[in-house]
Amino acid sequence: MADTPVRFGILGCANIARKMCRAITLSPNSVLYAIASRSLEKASSFVLENGFSPVEVKVYDSYEGVLEDPDVDAVYVPLPTSLHVRWAVLAAEKGKHVLLEKPAAPNLAELDRILEACECSVVQFMDATMWMHHPRTSEMRALLSDAQRFGQLKSIHSCFTYEADHNFLQNNIRVKPDLDSLGALGDIGWYCIQAILWAANYELPETVTAWR
């Protein structure tokens, strides 16, 4: 456990940020310090709805407010993928560690910009794919690497689905190309592809085929 808890700021009031608030609170190593929205009213409501008070958590009506706060150590960025490079790079330049929601970027070039900014500012970068960073995943890796127990890996099947209702298909940011251009591939396909690469010890495929 760290002597001083990491003070988190969150950029945006997305639904997934509610779960992150709880995770930050449950961790003995972190505290929720600030929340930002383009609307001060929305940020204030978010704080209250998640069981905090304005005394505990600062509220800002701009993302810049969180990044300029010298007491914020790290930021969680659950914004649309198209905004990741802008805010992750700026956060790194402001000396904040970056926890970035998946998919980390819409393309490799933008991810490289984010990683370069974090490296130049000597801050940590982490993608918010929980299972990849969980201790049990390390245990699974150790077991899978035991050829005496599992033999040789010959094929991998990975699937992730959920029901998208009419409201989701009409209004969710993940179906809007200008906000999340990767669509289902970047959203739930992210888990499938990461699982496949993880199981194959990150050996890249020679060919990729898609059906529609």
Automatic annotation (TrEMBL):
Residue ranges of domain Gfo/Idh/MocA-like oxidoreductase N-terminal in the record: 6-124
Superkingdom classification of source: Eukaryota
Family matches, as InterPro entries: Gfo/Idh/MocA-like_OxRdtase_N, NAD(P)-bd_dom_sf
Stretch forming the signal peptide: none
Pfam family, one: GFO_IDH_MocA
GO terms, molecular function: nucleotide binding
Protein name in UniProt: Gfo/Idh/MocA-like oxidoreductase N-terminal domain-containing protein
Naturally occurring in which organism (per UniProt): Camellia sinensis (Tea plant)
